[in-house]
Amino acid sequence: MTNEEQKKILIYKFLNRFNDLEKVIKDDWTFYVDKNRKPLFFHSHGKKNEYISFNYDRIWSFFKEFFLMEDQEIQGILKDWLEETYKLKGFTPAPDSLSWLYRLEETYKLLRGFMR
Of 35, 85, 77, nearest to 59 (Cα)? Predict the structure, then answer.
């Protein structure tokens, strides 16, 4: 087995851990969340040539740090995986450019707990 074949097996073994995410629609956003309700990737509705943002720490960094891959190569892999696994076509994968959204949501939940 070649190095490229081994690499592909490892990549899909990693990605297959996320094959059962729940789709959650909230306002103008669609989130794909794990069993702990943490978003792994998300996109907004109604825009052409739309980006789909992937959680950097949990997804994107795996490819950057473990395989030393460039963004364009990561995009290709994630695009294929999205189409095969979630039937999501026409999106351009991107590293999480809205990480503030996660932090805002977590902060809101914490503050709401203190205000009760």
Answer: 77
CB 22 within 8 A of CB 33: yes
pTM comes to 0.78
Q: Which residue has the tokens 């809101």?
A: 108
Predicted confidence (pLDDT) per residue in 38-86, tens digit:
889 999 887 665 889 999 988 999 999 999 999 999 999 999 999 999 9
Query: Pairing between strand 51-54 and 92-95?
Result: parallel
The SS3 call for residue 97 is coil
Give residue limits of the domains in the chain.
3-114
